[in-house]
Amino acid sequence: MSQGERIFAYIDKGGEETINKWCLPSILCDCFPLPTAAVTTECFDGCFGSVTVSAISTSSLPYGGMARILIAWLASKVYYERAHEVSINVFGSEFLEEIGFQFWDRYEIAEQMERISKTSFFIVREGAAGKETNTIVLAKNMSREKRRDSDIFNISLHKSFIDAVQKDSVAMLASLMRYKSNDPVFIDTYMRLALSK
Fold it and tell me: Which residues are 125's β-sheet partners?
């Protein structure tokens, strides 16, 4: 069974009615341009068909399944709750349970959030009418409060990210993304198939 067939088989089991959903802007689902493993670079390019996406950061880029899940979680806050600002305690049990990382290194989650807050996407889509370009900045600004028993990120989401989410988003099964959090290639394939379904 191919990877795509396994994803559709999972969705067809009927879990969609009982499992909460996340989402991502459809413009990012064709080609999600984040590295699958840790990097120290500030730019990363991805290409799928007629779509080219560049991820640019003012520090090192976020990476792996965790970064993809955190961005989907942020997009879901915008789409389902109309949030423009989020406050996240990466040491808080409620947040960790919601994203499915109860047993993950909380310092790694904090590092990923720091990287995400400094990342932008530049998308070029070629079609019959020519080139269409879009820029998505994830965060307008971010402050961090570190204490002995908490590490709180206060993030103001950028208008370009909010607009992209509200304009056209693709619903995704949170449980599947959590289950495959260690397989970013699988998650990327799921994004493309969710867009086409």
Answer: 51, 132
pTM: 0.88
Tokens of 141: 């600004």
29/80 Cα distance (integer angstroms): 18
Residues 6+ apart with CB under 8 A from 196: none
Q: Is it the case that residue 19 has pLDDT exceeding 60?
A: no
Both tokens assigned to 42 = 């500030």
Is residue 138 within 8 Å of residue 74, measured between CB atoms? yes
Q: Give the domain ranges of the chain.
A: 20-196
Backbone torsion region of residue 68, taken as left when φ is above 0, otherwise alpha when ψ lies between -120 and 50, otherwise beta: alpha
Q: What is the pLDDT of residues 121-134, one digit of tens each?
A: 999 988 778 888 99
Nearest to 188 by CA among 12, 76, 13, 47: 47
Residue whose pair of structure tokens reads 């880029």 in the numeric block? 61
Sign of CA pseudo-dihedral 174, 178, 179, 182: positive
Dihedral sign from CA coordinates of 158, 161, 166, 171: negative
Taking only the tens place, the pLDDT of each residue in 41-83 is: 899 998 888 889 999 999 899 999 999 999 999 999 999 999 9
CB 112 within 8 Å of CB 68:
no
